[in-house]
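BACKBONE STRUCTURE TOKENS:
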Amino acid sequence: MKVTARLKNYRRSPKKIRQLTNLLKGIRAEEAVYQLGFIRKGFADDLAGLIKSAIANAENNFKISKEKLFIANILVEEGPVLKRWRARAYGRAAQILKRSSHITVELEERQEGSKKEKEEMRKREKAEAEENRPKKKTAKKEDLKNDAAQKDGQEHPIQEDKIGKEKGRKEREEKREREKRLIKPLCFEAKRILDLVNKSIKKGKFKI
């Protein structure tokens, strides 16, 4: 059930009011009034008073608790425009438009558990649609390659790839072992030479 409150011929431009009202849609009515108390806008107090009026209408006319009310929508429509003028240079006159607006606040009662029920219904509908949907048989590239190879009498291409990878891995491991065997004696020889050089330096046979 929608509860409305209306403010007519309010002397503010609709463009300025909409910047604030778009942020209030969907939140609790009490929270909106609380937040408007901290906003530094000239029309914030008047807008809070309009929301309070809508809350009072809901409590008195429909016996709805204010804790369950939320802002469903805030309509800001253009009202009558007053036309004035101001003096400019060389005897000219410039137009002044003094705009007004009509503000309508719509409150609704929030029902607990309605969102959860909707989400569950959507999930069930999706599951039923997927079950009823006919399954398409899509042939993968690997299956097509295997079928073609079997027709030609060749070996399984996937097995060939696996065998090639294993061979490459074994070759790399053998190469690393060979390098280790060659490097170890070289390291020992270099260490022996360094020890001899250090001993000769200590004895004073030659200087570096």
About this structure: The CA atoms of residues 146 and 156 lie 6 Å apart. Helices lie at 14-24, 29-36, 44-61, 114-132, 141-152, 157-203. Residues 151-203 form one domain.
